Amino acid sequence: MATERRLDHISYNDHWLNLSMAQKASVNELSRFGFDLEFVRASGEEKLAFASLDNKYASINEDGEITMNSDQLVRN
């Protein structure tokens, strides 16, 4: 059984500080369309940022590449 590793509420600023410069630029671009940064997930050495708008998710890899309708597991 997987161990739950979610912490208590992490602030937007804490998530923001975990982003690469390329991710920050991409999150800023998505925010122009109404997306909000939700969380950052680290898997191994890779960090993915997730932004949402109306229950639709986009993931942003460390190079700033945006994947819409991400097939990454998103927990509610």
What would your notes on this structure say?
With about 80 residues, this protein is α+β, with helices and mostly antiparallel strands. It is about 20% helix and about 30% strand. The chain is built from two helices and four strands. The chain has helices at about 10-15, 20-30; strands spanning about 35-45, 45-55, 55-60, 65-70. The chain has a four-stranded antiparallel β-sheet with strand order 1-2-3-4. A hairpin with a 5-residue loop joins strand 3 and strand 4 (about 65-70). The radius of gyration is 12 Å and the shape is globular. The two termini are about 20 Å apart.
Helices, by number, come to: 2
Q: What is the chain-wise order of helices and strands?
A: HHEEEE
Largest sheet: 4 strands, antiparallel
Question: Residue share in helices?
Answer: 10-25%
Quaternary structure = single chain
Number of strands: 4
User: What low-confidence regions span 5 or more consecutive residues with pLDDT below 50?
Assistant: none
Using only C-alpha atoms, the radius of gyration works out to: 12 Å
Map the helices and strands.
Blueprint: H1 12-17, H2 21-31, E1 36-43, E2 46-53, E3 56-60, E4 66-68
Antiparallel strand pairs: 1-2, 2-3, 3-4
For the structure shown, list the relevant keywords:
single chain, 32% strand, globular, 2 helices
Q: What's a concise summary of this model?
A:
By secondary structure, the chain is α+β, with helices and mostly antiparallel strands. The chain has helices at 12-17, 21-31; strands at residues 36-43, 46-53, 56-60, 66-68.
